[in-house]
């Protein structure tokens, strides 16, 4: 997510390159300023991505993993074709996010929006990077608790724990929250990509949080659990007008449509934490920051949500289950379980589901829970 608040002017210039080869990719334009080198890169598939420093970006703040970039280059989709229906994956160990049937560990699995091994619907394993202050950790904790209270997402604090499975040697997929200081963009990966992945939070994310607005932190976490930008919906032109003349080349990238391999719930949601506000002060996105980059169809402004909306919650609740951290493989559900329409399951329904998840056994073995403090 790009910074919405005060933003210092950066001198920028745009110049053209002719067919500059870069790992087989062609760079066609380059923006530079005093903090980062940016360029638009056209992939073999015709899809354009942004390169900033060593990373390739999708939609402004989503870093592409090497596997996602390769797929986008070769197929035009972030990860090949999804053949099956989207559904919760119930075969994962909730805490390690590895398949419980270890014989299948090496198989390619289609777990959700993309057919990779690591787009997972179990607990989100995370660590606090050593560079965070205790105040910053406190803000992240509040964002995590907010998501836990409103959705089926559950987080497992693995700070200081091994990052590899001690028996099988596989890297655990986990999110590393870190501070990146004064920057106009906070970043995340889309879905879980395997092993360590950063959620990089700029100062403005923490400044907003100090005023009680955890929207930026929640937005970046929602990318890591698989969500894309609301304004990328394929049907968005029925709901918003975009002022293309007020967008920089980088800004235009924020409005690419996602037309394959993605799942939306409900109508366009102006309140989504994943949708941008109409106005930004980031001159890497807009040319005239006094004007909106897009509006509702009636011309009124859109304000970015500061927490998950009801439709955001439906997306998450449809795909995730709220597991309790345990040392064994029993899949214990937390006290409150939402269905895909944000309805809380009755206790009878919850126990029924828990039994289904555990070969008919509704009763968690005693003593299996492990501490999970944030
Ligand atoms: Zn974003």
Automatic annotation (TrEMBL):
Residues reported to bind Zn(2+): 219, 223, 229
According to its UniProt entry, one GO biological process term is:
proteolysis
Q: What is the lineage of its organism?
A: Bacteria, Pseudomonadati, Bacteroidota, Bacteroidia, Bacteroidales
PANTHER family, from UniProt?
A: DISCOIDIN, CUB, EGF, LAMININ , AND ZINC METALLOPROTEASE DOMAIN CONTAINING, METALLOENDOPEPTIDASE
Annotated organism of origin: Bacteroides muris (ex Afrizal et al. 2022)
Supply the name of the protein: Peptidase M12A domain-containing protein
Which residues carry out catalysis? Answer: 220
> How are cofactors bound according to the entry's free-text note?
Binds 1 zinc ion per subunit.
Cofactor dependence = Zn(2+)
């Amino acid at each position: 997510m790009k910074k919405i608040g005060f933003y210092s002017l950066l001198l920028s210039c745009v110049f053209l390159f002719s067919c500059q080869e870069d790992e087989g990719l062609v760079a066609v334009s380059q923006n530079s300023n005093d903090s980062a080198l940016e360029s638009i890169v056209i992939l073999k598939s015709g899809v354009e991505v942004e390169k900033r420093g060593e990373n390739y970006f999708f939609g402004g703040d989503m870093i592409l993993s090497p596997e996602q970039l390769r797929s986008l280059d070769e197929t035009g989709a972030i990860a090949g074709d999804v053949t099956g229906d989207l559904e919760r994956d119930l075969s994962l160990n909730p805490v390690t996010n590895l398949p419980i049937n270890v014989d299948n560990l090496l198989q390619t699995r289609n777990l959700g929006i993309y057919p990779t091994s690591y787009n997972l619907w179990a607990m989100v394993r995370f660590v606090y990077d050593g560079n965070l202050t205790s105040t910053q950790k406190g803000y992240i904790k509040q964002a995590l608790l907010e998501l836990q209270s409103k959705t089926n997402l559950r987080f497992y604090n693995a700070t200081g724990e091994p990052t590899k499975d001690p028996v099988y040697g596989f890297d655990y997929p986990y999110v590393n929250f870190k501070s990146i200081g004064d920057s106009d963009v906070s970043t995340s990966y889309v879905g879980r990509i395997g092993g360590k992945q950063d959620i990089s939070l700029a100062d403005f994310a923490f400044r907003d949080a100090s005023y009680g607005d955890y929207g930026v932190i929640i937005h970046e976490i929602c990318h890591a659990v698989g969500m894309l930008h609301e304004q990328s919906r394929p049907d968005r032109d029925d709901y918003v007008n975009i002022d293309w003349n007020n967008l920089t080349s980088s800004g235009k990238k924020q409005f690419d449509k996602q037309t394959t391999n993605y799942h939306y719930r409900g109508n366009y949601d102006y309140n989504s934490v994943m949708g941008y506000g109409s106005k930004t002060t980031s001159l890497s996105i807009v040319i005239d920051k006094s004007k909106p980059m897009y509006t509702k169809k009636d011309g009124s402004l859109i304000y970015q949500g500061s927490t998950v909306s009801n439709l955001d919650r439906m997306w998450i609740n449809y795909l995730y289950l709220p597991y309790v951290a345990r040392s064994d493989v029993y899949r214990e559900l937390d006290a409150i379980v939402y269905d895909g329409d944000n309805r809380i399951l009755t206790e009878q329904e919850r126990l029924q589901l828990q039994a289904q998840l555990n070969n008919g056994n509704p009763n968690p073995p005693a003593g299996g829970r492990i501490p999970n403090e944030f």
